[in-house]
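Dear Dr. V.,

Thank you for agreeing to look over these. As mentioned in my earlier message, I'm a first-year student in the group and I'm still getting used to reading structure tokens, so any feedback on how I've presented them would be very welcome. I ran two proteins. I've put each sequence directly above its structure. The first is here:
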Amino acid sequence: MQQTQHDGLASCGIEPYELGCGVPELDGFIDQGLITGVDAPLTSGKEAAVYRCRTPRGAEAPFLAAKVYHEHAAATFRRSATYFEGRERNLKPRAVRAIRAGTAHGRRVLASVWVSTEYEVLTRLTEAGADTPRPVAMAERAILMEYIGDEKRPAPQLHGGTLTKADGPRLWRQILENIEIFLSEHLVHGDLSPYNVLLWEGRARIIDVPQAVDARFNQSAFDLLRRDIENTARFFERFGLALSPTRIALDLWDRYRRARL
């Protein structure tokens, strides 16, 4: 019997949505004609859920991914002053006070900052040539973006992908090149690990960037950069690579500060 795309998704543990959308946060994208509905849920974490969405006939791609933030996701931002530092410069003083006080207005503002930051960062990185999903549209608590995968399955995370020993050095170089692109845009991912890198058609794709910090305005930017490199280098050392994360981070940071990236 021929396997359908829904059968393929089910074999990966993904149960498809049969009809309609079922996700109110995405209704605006349907109204704009960007998608026709939700095809399947992909992942659900503590901050957001991701869905594969069908696009209208004749669209550039058959699917897009929609990331929908949970209502409580902004609390993650509030709990970490490290990630919030530098963002207050784009907010009105009243909004900053409300965020720090934890008021209802502050939570709404913070939720908006969380979503808009990811959309803006993805836009900048796509234009800079980074291997990140291309953003398409933004709503109050959702981002519509390029879907990485095919009709049978989404791209696996790097840590769960099937890799040969020869893949290690090549993928490490690619990720390091992307870290450099981030930094050339004054950005540090801030939470990079094999769990938020997808592997598709032999290439790595970096995802989940709402916590990215601006290296010009965040005093912890270098420490976050070093941690990003340590987390990814640790994974690639299993391929026989002898890496020095601190040295790599210091070299990148020195080149960045001297405007040589």
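The second protein is here, in the same arrangement:
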Amino acid sequence: MTPKDPGDGPLIDRCLGGDLEAYGEIVDRYSGRLINVALMMVGDRHDAEDLAQEAFIRAYRGLGNFRGRARFSSWLYQITLNLCRDHLKARSRRGRRMEEEALESVAEGGDAVPATRALLEAELSETMRREINTLPFVYRQAFVMRHLQGLDYEEVAWITSVPADTVRVRAYRAREMLREKLAPAVDTYWREKAAKERVR
């Protein structure tokens, strides 16, 4: 595993030298990824943005402790997942129910998707997001990091501090749980999609 992502080494060195602009470049490079991970873990965009911001603050404060034993991005993911876990524990203690993420706006442009089809796909996407958020934390993080972020099992293992075989099992079980939970929604989606296409 390569310790540093392309370009991270010089940026980290500049940060350690007190260059705040370099850290801004790191934030620009990774903010989208950290927000997406946090969103899939906690289910609320506002909370996800706050957690990503806190992750960057903690990473900056602890930058001198980064030893390069894993990718810098993996280190950021690890900080983010730890913050998400703590956040969910605190939220559970307060007895708050998890808020659902609003539907993402449908992208416009070139080959526009018909409104009815776009709505069905958005509903399926919302259902999937909701079901991912019901997975137990350890399965959710394995699924999100492996299948949504596309990391290999060894990297997820480093981030989550468990053996790669455990990550593999957790990701598999998460997929099976989601398949069972989403089957009715997927069946409904395809039936409604077929019906709309017959009407056209």
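From my reading of the second output: The chain has two domains: 1-101, 110-200. The longest helix spans residues 164-199. Does that match how you would interpret it?

Kind regards,
E.
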